[in-house]
Structure formats: structure tokens, C-alpha cells
Design brief:
Elements: H1 2-11, E1 21-27, E2 33-39, E3 47-54, H2 69-74, E4 78-83, H3 100-113, E5 117-123, E6 125-126, H4 128-138, E7 144-146, E8 149-150, H5 168-178, H6 193-198, H7 205-210, H8 215-221, H9 228-231, H10 237-240, E9 247-254, H11 258-271, E10 278-286, E11 305-306, E12 309-310, H12 319-332, E13 342-346, E14 351-355, E15 364-371, E16 384-386, E17 393-399, E18 429-432, E19 440-454, E20 460-468, E21 474-477, E22 483-486, E23 505-518, E24 523-529, E25 556-562, E26 572-577
Parallel strand pairs: 3-4, 3-5, 5-7, 6-8, 9-10, 10-13
Antiparallel strand pairs: 1-2, 2-4, 11-12, 13-14, 15-16, 15-26, 17-25, 18-24, 19-23, 19-25, 19-26, 20-21, 20-22, 20-24
Organism: Brachionus calyciflorus
Keywords: Hydrolase
Protein name: Xaa-Pro dipeptidyl-peptidase C-terminal domain-containing protein
Length: 585
């Protein structure tokens, strides 16, 4: 449907005349030219401009906000969309955000000089096109009056393209298919991840899979720690303090970039001078429908099922109209929206809460401790989660890099799906609470603290948190397909520190923010394993550079400890909650 609609736009049938749509090539400050499409009505009135900078292309096949062009010109705006540098029809080399700030600055300066512009610009976007707005805002172009950075990437290494290990499937798919970059193609030579698993080294997997070299894929692998390559796009407090304009951000509890969206919102509130002018919406949405308040951006209809979760009617918001109200305030001097700064939907109880959450709250740290009597391997074990501190014990499983847990065998595991089809594997440790008697809400950061040892120098730990309902469905919670940490990053992402085999260590897996109520009759379930391939690359356990490791792989024996074997630490889940107590179980 979207393709037909955009073809009509290009053929200028029904919606636009030839004067309403045209393309220009705009010269940047270094001489490179970016391809820019302008959509506007026939009026000679100077109007405010909404700008999107995209690496996904400006054609009818692209995933952008250009389908909104008619809506914006009907409401007194001009819509402008540009191919980012090195993508689509734009010149230069694509640099993964590093040049977007300056190019955005130059584009806004150009827009402000055009005869159809009144000099006021707001930016529109989500995912990559939401994130690059932050880099533009930091440059403080005087004609940029507001931004709409939804579903935004977080810090490098902590989020894409690594996500604390290496997000293999995303890296290949985004560079090789989704982004409109040189050498990408929908036609791949080897599409079976089982064949990928046998290929060495990871650095040349791009050519094995796609039959072409993907320079950006290799560039990512060449920089496995925070270094000068990543520092160019690593936003710090002094950067956020330069953002002196309002923002409106949408994300969802099932959006893989929720972490980044909340991070940027929190730091804009903390460090920017207009800290009361930043707004955040968090709904039961996924990555694609979050910017539209849970509605499908093509059909405009509510997306009622996400994974195995049914979404209630009260969860959906008029995202586009809310964005218009925000722009009307920033770009047309109309009244400021009377919203609380954060509006967040709690799944389970299915209700909205409003306030300044995540930056400030009155919640407490609550813990559920991992323990077992005879062993927690698989769903057949007796692993337990409860509020009582455990006596000393441990659980062990084997991880074989050549037979990893596969993320591509059944459902879309990026979404809240029933995970039971995994839980009979013996390379999963499963810990389950007793039946919930009194409902309790988790609202804020969730962290898994593990005390562990392994017989190898480097390995992965992967975790899932689930709500087990009355039908014994184990519905996965959280914003990502999985939460993981490659142990070489346990002391930070600016260095790689290998382990002494069989020595006991601690690590923390950040499961990011959640907003969910565990209802009476349900249970809390945690699963711990060491792989989720090909979402994350299979760790060969050698400790070698992952890009060039030729193997062979090493099987590892992973041991999780509880009951303070090391410096008073024990394995546990850390929740933010006000009402989790002994009367809950």
C-alpha cells in the first residue's frame, strides 16, 4: 500500500502538482552534495519546515516518514527529506552518525534561506533518523526549534551494533539490506545461519553471506572497544547541555532501542537548560509502531498483537496528532502541550502513569535471589527465585559454541513471546518464583547480578525475564530479543579483560527499564544461558579477537553461584519496585 501511495506522489496524481514536489542537491560545507526532496503546497506563504535525514532512501520502497507529507502540508508545514551522506543519491562516505551533525546543521541553514521557508525547522524521525537529530541539536543551528528523536540508538558497544556482545544478525541485515548503502542488496548468496556458524573468521562473513564486502560491517568489527572511532558519536553530559530546544520522544517496552531513547531523555532533562521541555512516551509498542503511539504507520490501525501479547485499546495514542501539537507549539507559537514529561503504560494492569519517571522516582531496590536444591538445568530442574537470601550453592551447564541456542527457529523472539519451546534445553538454567499472591509492579531498571566461573578465558551470559501466566505460558519481558554480556566487557567497554579459567567473578547484565505488573496467579521466571545465535554472534570461548578468530571453538562449563562465595555477592535480580515484599508470594 505504501509503495502505491508513494508512486502516486512521484507521478503527481491527485495529491500534488508538479510545483509541490521536487528534488534538489544541496551542497554541504565540505563541498559534498546531499539529495533532498521537498513536499509543499501551492501557497506562496512562508511556512515552517519538518526535516528528516534518512539512510533508508527516498524512494517508494523506503521506510521513512515521507508518507506523512500530505498530512504536514495540509496542516501548514513543508516536509523535507534528505538522503544522509553516502546513502541513496547523496555524495560522500556513510559514517554511521559521525557526519550527520554537521550535515544537519548545513541542511537547516540551507532550508532557512529558501524562499518557501519561514526560518523555523523541526526534525522528524525514528530509529536512525531519530538518533541523528541529537547530533544535529548538539551543533545548535539557530533555525532548529525542536526535535522528535524517537526509538533512538544508545551508546556504542552498550547498544547497536554490539549490544554488549556483537549483534550479528542486525549488523549484516541493516548494512546489507535495510540501509540504502552502496553494495547492499536483497539478494544474498547464503541465507542459512547454520552455514554462517561454520564460517571463519567473522570478519569475512559479510562476503560469505552477501557475496560482497560490506565496509561498515568490517569497520564495526575493527573497533570492539570504545576508541576514537566511537568517541565521535559518544554523547557526554557536555553534549546534552548544548541541546537548548524541546524534544518529544516515543518508544516502547518492546522496542530494541528503548534503552537509548530513555538514556537520551534522561540526560537532556539532567543537563540541558530547558529541562522542563522534554517529553517521553513509553507504551506497549515495538520499534516500528512506537512513533505513532502503537498504530501501524501504513494503515493507521492499532497493532493489537505484539508477539504473544494482546494489547488493550487504552494503550494506543494519536501519536501523529500529538507530534503535530508539539510542532505547533515549537514552530507556530501555539500553546505548550499540557502533558506531564513522561507518560508510561504499565503492562499487566494495563494503565498509564504520568510524572517525571526514570529521572526521579521513589522506588526501592528489591531483590529476588537465585537458588536451587538439586539443580536448575532446564524447566525440569528445581531452580527458585525468592526473597530469602540463599545458603551456599551452585548450578552448572555446558555451553557448546558449535550448537548454540538458535534465535531463528520459531517466533519473532525480539517480541514478547512464549519462551517455553526453549526451556527444556539443558544449557538453560531456569529459576521460577512461587505463585504470586499479591500483585507487584516492576517499574524502572532491572539488573541481573551473577556470581560465576567458567573454564575458559572469555564467554557469554544471556538472560531472559518472563511472566508465567495461568496457562503456563512464559511470556518474555523487556525491550530486547535478549539481554547479554560478553565477559571480556565485565569491567566496561573501553577495554577487554579476559578471565582466569575457573576463577570466580561477578558481572551485571543490564536488562534496562521495564514497566510491568506481575498479577496474582502468575509467576516470575528467569532463564540464563550462553548464546542466542544469530542475534548475537556465537562466542567461540577462545578469548581471541572475535573478528579474526579462526577457532576451533572450546566448550565451556559455566557455573552460577549463590550464597556469597565471593566478597558477599550472590546471584540475584535487582528490581525497582515499591510493593514487592514477602506478602507477594
Amino acid at each position: 500500500m505504501i509503495s502505491i501511495f508513494l508512486i502516486l506522489l512521484h507521478n503527481c496524481i491527485g495529491f500534488f502538482s508538479l510545483d509541490d514536489f521536487h528534488t534538489e542537491f544541496v551542497q554541504m560545507s565540505d563541498g559534498k552534495k546531499l539529495a533532498v526532496d521537498i513536499y509543499r503546497s501551492l501557497t506562496n506563504e512562508k511556512l515552517p519546515v519538518i526535516l528528516e535525514m534518512t539512510p533508508y532512501g527516498r524512494t517508494s520502497e523506503s521506510t521513512t516518514f515521507r508518507n506523512e507529507a500530505r498530512y504536514w502540508y495540509q496542516n501548514g508545514y513543508i516536509f523535507v527529506i534528505a538522503d544522509t551522506r553516502g546513502s541513496g543519491d547523496s555524495e560522500g562516505d556513510f559514517e554511521f552518525f559521525a557526519r550527520d551533525g554537521q550535515d544537519g546543521f548545513d541542511l537547516i541553514e540551507w532550508v532557512a534561506r529558501e524562499p518557501w521557508s519561514n526560518g523555523k525547522v523541526g526534525m522528524r524521525g525514528s530509529s536512525y533518523t531519530g538518533t541523528n537529530q541529537l547530533y544535529v541539536a548538539v551543533k545548535k543551528p539557530k533555525n532548529l526549534f525542536c526535535i522528535n528523536p524517537s526509538a533512538t540508538f544508545g551508546r556504542p558497544l552498550e547498544n547497536l551494533p554490539f549490544n554488549k556482545a556483537f549483534y550479528l544478525n542486525w549488523a549484516l541485515g541493516w548494512i546489507g539490506k535495510s540501509a540504502n548503502l552502496p553494495k547492499n542488496s536483497l539478494d544474498w548468496k547464503n541465507t542459512d545461519p547454520s552455514q554462517w556458524l561454520e564460517h571463519r573468521p567473522l570478519y569475512t562473513l559479510d562476503e560469505f553471506v552477501t557475496d560482497r564486502i560490506l565496509p561498515l560491517y568490517r569497520k564495526f568489527l575493527e573497533h570492539p572497544t570504545i576508541d576514537s572511532f566511537w568517541e565521535k558519536i559518544y554523547l557526554k553530559p557536555e553534549n546534552y547541555s548544548q541541546i537548548e530546544i524541546p524534544s518529544l520522544s516515543f518508544t516502547g517496552w518492546f522496542d530494541g532501542t528503548m534503552y537509548g531513547t530513555l538514556l537520551h531523555f534522561e540526560d537532556m532533562v539532567r543537563y540541558s537548560v530547558r529541562n522542563n521541555d522534554h517529553f517521553l512516551i513509553v507504551g506497549p509498542y515495538e520499534h516500528g509502531n512506537a512513533p505513532d503511539g502503537g498504530l501501524d504507520f501504513i494503515t493507521g490501525k492499532p497493532k493489537k498483537n505484539i508477539g504473544d501479547l494482546f494489547i488493550e485499546d487504552n494503550a494506543f495514542l494519536p501519536g501523529l496528532n500529538m507530534t503535530k501539537e508539539f510542532y505547533d507549539w515549537c514552530l507556530k507559537d501555539r500553546p505548550k502541550p499540557q502533558w506531564k514529561q513522561v507518560k508510561a503504560y504499565i503492562t499487566g494492569t494495563n494503565e498509564w502513569r504520568e510524572g517525571l519517571f526514570f529521572v526521579k522516582d521513589n522506588l526501592e531496590d528489591k531483590y529476588l535471589y537465585l537458588k536451587s536444591k538439586y539443580g536448575a538445568a532446564s524447566k525440569m530442574g528445581d531452580g527458585v527465585l525468592d526473597l530469602d537470601y540463599p545458603t551456599y550453592g551452585s548450578d552448572t551447564y555446558e555451553y557448546n559454541p558449535d550448537e548454540p541456542v538458535r534465535s531463528d527457529l520459531s517466533k519473532n523472539v525480539l517480541l514478547p513471546v512464549d519462551m517455553n519451546f526453549y526451556l527444556n534445553r539443558t544449557d538453560f538454567l531456569i529459576y521460577t518464583s512461587s505463585v504470586v499472591k499479591k500483585a507487584f509492579t516492576v517499574f524502572g531498571k532491572v539488573k541481573l547480578e551473577l556470581t560465576f566461573s567458567s573454564n575458559v578465558r572469555d564467554t557469554d551470559f544471556v538472560a531472559f525475564l518472563m511472566d508465567v501466566d495461568e496457562n503456563d505460558r512464559s511470556i518474555k519481558l523487556g525491550s530486547m530479543g535478549t539481554f547479554q554480556l560478553r565477559t571480556r566487557y565485565r569491567y566496561g567497554y573501553d577495554k577487554e579483560v579476559l578471565m582466569e579459567p575457573n576463577k570466580i567473578y561477578n558481572l551485571t547484565i543490564d536488562m534496562y527499564e521495564m514497566g510491568h505488573t506481575f498479577l496474582p496467579g502468575h509467576k516470575v521466571r528467569l532463564a540464563v544461558t550462553s548464546s542466542f545465535y544469530p542475534i548475537i554472534s556465537a562466542n567461540l570461548n577462545t578469548g581471541n579477537n572475535i573478528a579474526f578468530d579462526m577457532g576451533p571453538s572450546i566448550k565451556s562449563n559455566q557455573t552460577i553461584y549463590y550464597g556469597s562465595p565471593l566478597n558477599g555477592f550472590t546471584s540475584r535480580i535487582n528490581f525497582k519496585s515499591k510493593d514487592l515484599g514477602y506478602d507477594c508470594f
